[in-house]
Structures are given as structure tokens and as C-alpha cells.
């Protein structure tokens, strides 16, 4: 992955986890984007971060019992910003996002957003989609190590941690993880150096101001505002 990855597309400049946000990331010079893959009850996989619809759509309530037929009717753009330039933007399927990234020449870090015990189902569903959709470079990441364990696709894997545990290297070896993604607020220089010494890449999330770039030797950052961070990594 390059040094600048658009977080949830380009969430500081367009509604997160939408095709509009992905396109904005490309316009701002990102080579890759990150977005959240969520499983619906009918087996569909969408881009969505939260457990409920309330913050990012005109719907309310949990998404766990919804189908694609329910979600596709929602407005995922009217909430964003002060105007209504994104009104009518929909929640995309993962397959749509993959094709969008491919057409724009973007790599795609798919985060498996696991809820409850659905990790295996989500990992399988994402793997099947990757088999059937023409896509560009992909990396699969998650906080849920069980989901990464059962993911059977060829895409490389990245470990996500709010706080790096003592057994991270054993997990990385077991999963053959190529990257480790750390929360910038808790990551230390020693952790970065140790991970780099094992030959794995280190990425920090979420960096939205150059003043947050306190660690050296990282491979890149996830950001909502690529225009603010360009040149800082």
C-alpha cells in the first residue's frame, strides 16, 4: 500500500463508505482507500461502519436484521455537511465498491466489520465476492482475528489493533499477516520499530492533522483528509 490511504473512502470530504467518497479519494491523490465490509441478514455485503443506521443514513435502528432490499432504499448522503450535494447517495454493495476502485486505479483495504459471531460468515462472503468480481489490489484487515483466520482468499492480511497485545507477532505469523495497523493515539515508537524489524509494514489510523505524526518509520497512514496530510509521511 502507498503512504496515504483514504479512510472510509475520503470521509472528511464526502459521506463515508460511499462511492462518492471513494471517487473523492481518487481526486485527492490517494492510491488506496479503506472501507468497512458489513454483512446483512440475507448474505449481502455492504460498505457500512456502524451497528445502526442512524448516524449515516435517513434510517433508524440496527442493521443486523436488514436485507439489501431494505438498505438499498436508504439515503446515505443527505446527512453529510451543511448542504445537500450528496442527497440521494446510496449505501453501496462491496461488489460495487470493488468495481469502482478498479475503474479508478485504486487499491482497496477491506476491513471486515464483524458483529457478534458472524465473523466466519462475513469472511466467507467477502472471499466469494472477490472470486466473482474483477478487482484491483486488495488487502483484508480486521480487529477480529477469527475472521482473518477463516478468510480463504489470496488477498494479503492486515492486523488491526487499538492497543498492540504481547502476542501480536504469534498472531501475525499464524495468519501470515503482511501489515499491522495501529491506533495512532496509543502506538509507540518502540512498537513501530519492533514490527518493522519483523519485515511487516506499519500503518497508523486515523491521522487527520500533521501534528499527529509523532512516530517515525511508519509505512503510511489512514486519513479522512488526504489534502491535510499529503507530504507528512
Spell out the key features of this protein.
single chain; 233 residues; alpha/beta; TIM Barrel; eight-stranded parallel barrel; 8 helices; 9 strands; 19% strand; globular
Question: Could you provide a short overview of the structure?
Answer:
The protein is 28% helix and 19% strand. With 233 residues, it is of the alpha/beta class.
Topology:
Layout: E1 4-7, H1 19-27, E2 32-39, E3 45-47, H2 68-71, H3 94-104, E4 107-112, H4 119-132, E5 138-142, H5 145-150, E6 157-161, H6 168-175, E7 179-183, H7 189-197, E8 201-205, E9 220-223, H8 226-229
> What's the number of helices?
8
Shape: globular
Q: How many strands, what sense, and barrel or not for the largest sheet?
A: 8 strands, parallel, barrel
CATH topology: TIM Barrel
Number of domains: 1
Helix vs. strand class: alpha/beta
Give the % helix: 25-40%
| CATH superfamily membership | Phosphatidylinositol (PI) phosphodiesterase
**CATH-defined architecture:** Alpha-Beta Barrel
What would you call the quaternary organization? single chain
Indicate the CATH class. Answer: Alpha Beta
Strand content: 15-25%
Amino acid at each position: 500500500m502507498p503512504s496515504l490511504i483514504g479512510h472510509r473512502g475520503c470521509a472528511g470530504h464526502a459521506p463515508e463508505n460511499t462511492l462518492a467518497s471513494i471517487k473523492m479519494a481518487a481526486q485527492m491523490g490517494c492510491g488506496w482507500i479503506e472501507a468497512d465490509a458489513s454483512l446483512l441478514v440475507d448474505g449481502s455485503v455492504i460498505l457500512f461502519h456502524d451497528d445502526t443506521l442512524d448516524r449515516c443514513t435517513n434510517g433508524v435502528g440496527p442493521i443486523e436484521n436488514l436485507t439489501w432490499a431494505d438498505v438499498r432504499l436508504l439515503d446515505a448522503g443527505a446527512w453529510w455537511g451543511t448542504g445537500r450535494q450528496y442527497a440521494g447517495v446510496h449505501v453501496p454493495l462491496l461488489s460495487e465498491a470493488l468495481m469502482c476502485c478498479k475503474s479508478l486505479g485504486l487499491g482497496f483495504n477491506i476491513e471486515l466489520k464483524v458483529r457478534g459471531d458472524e465473523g466466519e460468515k462475513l469472511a466467507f462472503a467477502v472471499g466469494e465476492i472477490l472470486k466473482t468480481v474483477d478487482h484491483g489490489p486488495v488487502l483484508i484487515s480486521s480487529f477480529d482475528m477469527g475472521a482473518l483466520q477463516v478468510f480463504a482468499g489470496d488477498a494479503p492480511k492486515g492486523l488491526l489493533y487499538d492497543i498492540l497485545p504481547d502476542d501480536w507477532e504469534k498472531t501475525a505469523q499464524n495468519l501470515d499477516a503482511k501489515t499491522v495497523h495501529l491506533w495512532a493515539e496509543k502506538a509507540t515508537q518502540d512498537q513501530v520499530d519492533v514490527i518493522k524489524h519483523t519485515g511487516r509494514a506499519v500503518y497508523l489510523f486515523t491521522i487527520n492533522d500533521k501534528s499527529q505524526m509523532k512516530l517515525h518509520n511508519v509505512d503510511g497512514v489512514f486519513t479522512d483528509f488526504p489534502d491535510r496530510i499529503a507530504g507528512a509521511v
